[in-house]
Amino acid sequence: MYETNWEVLCHFHICGQMTGRRKRGVNKICWASYLFNNINDKSNSVTGMAPSTDEEIAERITTSTSSYKTELNEDTFNPDIVFESFHHQARIPISERALLAHVVAEMLRGTNAAA
Questions:
Q1: Which helix (H) or strand (E) holds 110?
Q2: Which is nearest to 61 in space by CA: 29, 85, 37, 80?
Q3: For residue 53, which phi and psi values (nearest 5 degrees)?
Q4: Which DSSP helix (H) or strand (E) runs through 9?
Q5: SS3 of residue 111 by DSSP
Q6: DSSP assignments along 17-56, one per residue
Q7: Both ends of the chain: CA-CA distance in Å?
Q8: What is the pLDDT of residues 4-62, one digit of tens each?
Q9: What is the distance between the alpha carbons of residues 56 and 13, in angstroms, rounded to a whole number?
Q10: pTM for the predicted model, two decimal places
């Protein structure tokens, strides 16, 4: 489950950086357009996202997002561990498991908001 959440969050943050974040997160249309090609084009079939190239990833990474270094113990990670940018996750299209997990989470969030 951790890997699935990690995958969704990496892509969510990539989308947020690419499209701009609003007060409550990423615009749902922007998020859907990030996840699925041709979602706004009725003349073409909707397809899943394509992997990003190394050049595209390099363009997105800024100094502030190039890496993350733990300062304290964080869960099972000791201080001074360096993680690469979440942008590297874009080399792999989001998995069907992560898409399903996100859809279910959105549905549950929508039901709780209505209650």
A1: helix 96-114
A2: 85
A3: -80, 165
A4: helix 2-19
A5: helix
A6: HHH--BTTBS-HHHHHHHHEETTT-TTS--EEPPPPPHHH
A7: 27
A8: 888 888 888 888 888 887 777 788 888 888 888 888 888 999 888 888 888 888 888 87
A9: 15
A10: 0.69
Measured between alpha carbons, how far is 15 from 87 in angstroms, rounded to an integer? Answer: 10
Structure tokens belonging to residue 15: 């989308």
- Read off φ and ψ for residue 81, nearest 5 degrees: -90, 135
CA distance 66 to 87: 8
Residue type, 44: N
Q: Which residues pair with 84 in a beta bridge?
A: 67
Helix axes 2-19, 96-114, angle to 10 degrees: 80
